[in-house]
């Protein structure tokens, strides 16, 4: 049975798709929390590249050999994040901050979430310097334009991105490895 003192954080996001920056944040988060739930948002206002099922599957595949896998859960949520956080009985939300440009949006979101439930705190962790310039959006842009994202996303994600956005490059790689 789980200890009542076990600390749990929800790490929400679109994860369209998961990047090495996200994985870095999870590693940092696991130094502070016993368990982390990666909560993938079903956001009807956004049109993601990957379906919800694909995003969940890519996260799971990317974590397959992760040493702390047993401390991570992967789930989806719809509607208000704070309703989900309450449902899973968490007291903490984890978010990454890359640069000043992230701050305004994150600040707004954290304050709104606090207004919705002041018992839950948002924890911001600085992304590792290696990943400071990457985002799911820029990764997709680069792949679509024919650039390489090797080393910036987990392997299964790179493969799936090529399949969706640049199938020609994948074919070439197969023929001339
Ligand atoms: O990775 P993202 O797209 O920056 O993640 C944003 C996300 C999913 C965390 C945010 O949009 C969210 O929490 N959506 C759920 C709806 C909600 O609770 N909105 C109010 C919070 S301001």
UniProtKB/TrEMBL annotation:
GO cellular component term of the entry, any: cytoplasm
Organism, scientific name: Thermodesulforhabdus norvegica
UniProt pathway annotation: Cofactor biosynthesis; coenzyme A biosynthesis; CoA from (R)-pantothenate: step 4/5
Cofactors, names only: Mg(2+)
Recorded superkingdom: Bacteria
Function statement: Reversibly transfers an adenylyl group from ATP to 4'-phosphopantetheine, yielding dephospho-CoA (dPCoA) and pyrophosphate.
EC number: 2.7.7.3
Main subcellular location: cytoplasm
Protein name, per record: Phosphopantetheine adenylyltransferase
UniProt cross-references to Pfam families, sorted A to Z: CTP_transf_like
GO MF term list: ATP binding; pantetheine-phosphate adenylyltransferase activity
């Amino acid at each position: 049975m789980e200890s009542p003192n076990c600390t749990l954080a929800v790490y929400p996001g679109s994860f369209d798709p998961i990047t090495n920056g996200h994985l870095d944040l999870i590693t940092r988060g696991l130094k502070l929390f016993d368990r982390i739930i990666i909560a993938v948002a079903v956001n009807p206002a956004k049109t993601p590249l990957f379906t919800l099922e694909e995003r969940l599957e890519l996260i799971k595949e990317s974590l397959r050999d992760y040493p702390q896998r047993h401390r991570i859960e992967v789930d989806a949520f719809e509607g208000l994040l704070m309703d989900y956080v309450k449902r899973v009985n968490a007291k903490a939300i984890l978010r990454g901050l890359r640069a000043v440009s992230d701050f305004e949006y994150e600040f707004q979101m954290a304050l709104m979430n606090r207004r919705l439930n002041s018992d839950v705190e948002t924890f911001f962790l600085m992304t590792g310097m290696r990943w400071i310039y990457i985002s799911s959006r820029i990764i997709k842009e680069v792949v679509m334009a024919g650039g390489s994202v090797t080393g910036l996303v987990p392997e299964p994600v790179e493969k799936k991105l090529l399949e969706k956005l640049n199938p020609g490059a994948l074919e070439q790689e197969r023929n001339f490895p």
